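Quick start: what a row looks like.
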Amino acid sequence: MHHAPLFTPVALGSLQLANRILMAPLTRCRADAAHVPTDLMAEYYGQRAGAGLIIAEATMVIEGNSAFGGREPGIYSAAQVAAWKKVTAAVHARGGKIVLQLWHGGRACHSLLNQGAQPVGPSPRRIENDETHTPLGKRPYEIPRELRDDELPGIVAGFRHAAQQAQAAGFDGVEVHGANGYLLDAFLRSGSNTRSGPYGGPVGNRARLLLEVVDAAGGVWGASRVGVRLSPLNSFNDMKDADPVGLTTWVATELNRRGLAYLHVMRGDFFGAQSGDVMTPARAAFRGPLVGNMGYTAAEAAAAVASGALAAVAFGHHYISNPDLAERLQAGVALVEPDANTFYSPGAAGFTDYPAMPRA
């Protein structure tokens, strides 16, 4: 057996996993125009049920917050719940486990994707270093409307309702998306949150909304079936924090008090704008199951698990093109590289047509 430490059972809170290879959340834009998951998505996730845990893609908790060209899934409607039931059934039929990532696009949304609705955020600071895809082609990001303090309980309620909907859809738990510049992360980091008051200023205030959402999800599921994803260094969506290590330490300490299923940390920056070690302070502050993500080789992942530094490792882009990634890593079989041209395109091409490895 190759990379043996990855193929030992592990408990992430109440989630009993057969192995320590997680499928990272990967937005693929295959939902329909009403943000309802499709049968193709059920096939896709079912193909990947060999992962110890699938973390399903970023899923809208509140209607009207699309940030991915209008084809990302939601979990706020009855039709969406019914469609997600097909996904969870397909994964469970193959012995897999799957949690849903709860997400609000925040300032990364665009009015052209949301019936003219202005995006919202912690402060009126737009994403400056990129453009977004809209029905009219690429357009600059818009200046978000600053959410009032009295609107934030409604955001928390939206996440709570989404957690309830995910339960009804048959998921095994939920992951709160606090990463990559979307709403909760935009509140969390100092580069995008310049507000004052109870949700701005020091890190304890900036983290307030994230923690309220985590507690709301825990009230639905129990904390032991709730995970949280953070990306303290990632500059994606024009993000930066003045003290990412301090931020990691503070938030991980607070999350440690909650008995979560896991803390999922993206260790680097897609674009290399920020660097540093956030895994060491995360491990020191969070004593529950820690999941690493971003650029781990199988050998590095196995070593991190064997040392106790990580409970599991989430793999992203290789799960696009290797539906049986865990089995391939166990067998020492070469991996297929994905075609980036089909990451977000419609249909089966580059989605469900990557073959499993040949069986002897």
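That is the whole record. The first helix runs from residue 39 to 47. The longest strand covers residues 53-60.
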